[in-house]
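A common beginner's mistake is to predict each chain separately and then try to dock the pieces by hand. The better habit, illustrated here, is to supply every component at once so that their relative placement is modeled jointly.
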Amino acid sequence: MIRFINHLIWFVGLVALQVFVLDNIHFLGIFMPLIYVYALLRWPSDMSPKMTLIFGFLLGLSVDMLSNTPGMHATATTLMAALRYPVLRLFVSKEDLGSKDVGERSLGMGTFWKYAFILVFIHHITLFLVESFSFVNWLLLLVKIPSCSMLTLLFIFALERLNSKEDAKS
Amino acid sequence: MQNILRFIAKYSTVLLFILLQSCALYLLFNDNSYQQSAFFSSSNKLNGMLFSAEEAVTGYFHLRENNDALMKENNELQLKISRLESALLQYTDTSGIALTRMKEADEFSLIPGQVIHSNISRLRNYLTLNIGKKDGVMPEMGVANAQGIVGVVSNVSDHYSVVIPVLNPQIVRFSCKLKRMNASGSLVWDGTDRRYAYLEEIPPYVSVSKGDTVVTSGFSAIFPEGIMVGTVDEYEIGEDANYLKLKVRLSTRFDGLSNVRVIRYKHRQELKQVEEEAAQ
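With all components supplied together, the output reads:
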């Protein structure tokens, strides 16, 4: 239960950070980090798939509500939530997953970053395709998707550092 | 019946995924430009409160620039007053003309407001203002600041309103014209650079030069004629050579936008009604 509340606090904190702080930061006008996906990345692996889906949907929906983009983020996070377990299983066996939190410490550095990279990339591709659905500027998309993904991963890297340090203490 | 239940139980996760994803896609494709559901627009109460709190902090970041802009606007207004006063002196005795002009003066009135939240890094951008129905704001009213046009109001609640700025392709096209030649076209943003927009549908025989001023045309009830939009930066002939496409440097700086004015047109209802009747 305490673990569950901990994840909810991360949810609220990251959405607030995204909408109130990071949405005001844009490098060169178009590049921005989408840090809120971290809440879904570190969602425990032993939660039922249904809970994961609902969590992902609500995460995207809250960002949508606060930034006037009905359905845009929700589409991307729901897809990400659905693909999370399969991607995780690519690198980790069922027994190793257990009831641990998903993170650098529990999965190992390499595995966690492969997992994070793939999911962040899927999320960004979906989001930007959906955003520019009827207004496609392919060149801009080709620049935007990888650069924003890198930026997001950079921010996740920083948060993960803080997080694993905290875990080590407790 | 049992088979159906067993099927649902077996594929419940997949079904849930499909359900949630279709909810998201429904929301995505259901957003009419003007009739977005009240649930989502940031004019709804919770968001309004949150963003007011955010503005309480971030509002201080741009005080200096805002002060400068206000000072400049003040100066311009002072100049205008003195110019108008001198013009008025000429007419005081031959009253006829002066009186008719005075009557038209209050056709448009201004409602001052502040931007409390802005999204300008996306393709479809929105601004939230701290004024709403109680202050007389209605959907489809124009918004401008001292520098030039900002956008058009889309959703309104009692105390807040959401504005679609010029930086939002495909939803709005603003009718603008070249001040010098009086040739009009429509202004669109291409989704890349926040400093520039494009003026399309200008007839090809118009002689344009760099630095020409672009102002609103006054063809709609949104803006009165002659509000500053920007200056021509580059121009090229359109794809089928039937029109010119001008790159316009917007005079409004959208980063750190704060003080704006909503423009209320007194006879808006009447104009709309007549136009609707004509369209039928």
